[in-house]
Design goal:
Number of strands: 13
Structural class: alpha/beta
Shape: globular
Number of helices: 8
Helix content: 25-40%
Largest sheet: 9 strands, mixed
Order of helices and strands: EEEEEHEHEHEHEEEEHEHHH
CATH class: Alpha Beta
Strand content: 25-35%
Number of domains: 1
CATH topology: Rossmann fold
Strand order of the largest sheet: 11-10-9-12-8-1-6-7-13
Distance between the termini: 59 Å
CATH architecture: 3-Layer(aba) Sandwich
């Protein structure tokens, strides 16, 4: 099996996020998107069971290669970064076209059987990319997957997901796009040997001009030629939510639980 895993470098949520105008500041304490680690682990486990290789794929600035090195340490065999100033501030539709074009380029060497990705990226949390990518690639999408099995012989994938209190078991032909939840597995923690080995694995960087011809919509070619000067979808404004008030502090002198319950009861009236 040849599995492509989408990876994204995002601001570390534990270190706080900083905004400048309507833009989220990147490049400060950036890390691999946490949900993508589950996708890499799933791909590595499938390849261990059925054979094949895992290709980590990303789009972003040059320092996004750090996230790909993390993927290589987690079990990916090679990594590919699409980085170009023309893709700065790309919306989800352009991002989907660019990643689909990169995957199509990689598929020229050998077909891609499956595309795995995390259920969301922690910077924007739109969860829109998997569906957009599947639409561009014209392949099935199964989202929010918490159990996954693949039968390479029959060329099908079977997935279990929970939606609105209902457990669904879905079956789809390969190739397909699958977004996974953090319930699917527990990503491995790379040791020193894994981190060292990751530096020896292939990490290839591509530019927009390398993949534009693989986009049937022509959108990427328009960006290269300058015919398109802005993204179809753009952020107009961004405002942080600030919690009002300083709250009320209870000093626990043995009756803290009772006082807290009374406080909540009073506020709910």
């Amino acid at each position: 099996m040849r599995i492509a895993v989408l990876a994204k470098q995002v601001p570390d949520t534990s270190s706080g996020r900083r905004f400048e105008g309507s833009r989220l500041v990147r490049g400060e304490d950036d890390v691999l998107n946490e949900f993508d680690e589950n996708a890499v682990e799933a791909a590595a486990e499938l390849v261990a069971a059925h054979g094949g290789e895992v290709l980590a794929v990303s789009m972003g600035p040059e320092d996004a290669s750090d996230a790909l090195v993390r993927c290589l340490a987690l079990g990916a065999d090679s990594a590919y970064l699409l980085s170009d100033p023309l893709l700065e501030n790309a919306d989800v539709t352009v991002t989907a076209r660019a990643l689909a074009a990169l995957i199509s380029l990689l598929a020229e060497e050998e077909a891609i059987d499956l595309v795995l990705c995390g259920m969301a990226a922690s910077d924007a949390m739109t969860s829109m990319l998997p569906a957009a990518l599947a639409a561009v690639m014209n392949v099935p999408l199964v989202s929010q997957v918490r159990e996954l099995t693949v039968d390479p012989d029959s060329g099908h994938v079977q997935a279990l997901r929970s939606v609105d209190g209902v457990d669904e078991t879905l079956r789809a032909p390969l190739p397909a796009v699958i977004s996974v939840t953090d319930q699917l597995n527990e990503p491995r923690f790379p040791g020193f040997k894994d981190l060292k080995a990751a530096r020896m694995k292939p990490l290839v960087q591509a530019e927009l001009d390398d993949v534009a011809g693989y986009d049937p919509t022509g959108c990427l070619s328009e960006l290269v030629s300058g015919a398109r000067s802005e993204m179809p979808l753009g952020v107009v404004s961004m405002t942080e939510h600030n919690r009002g008030g300083s709250g009320e502090v209870f000093t626990d002198t043995g009756d803290g639980g009772t006082r807290l319950a009374e406080f909540i009861e009073e506020k709910m009236k």
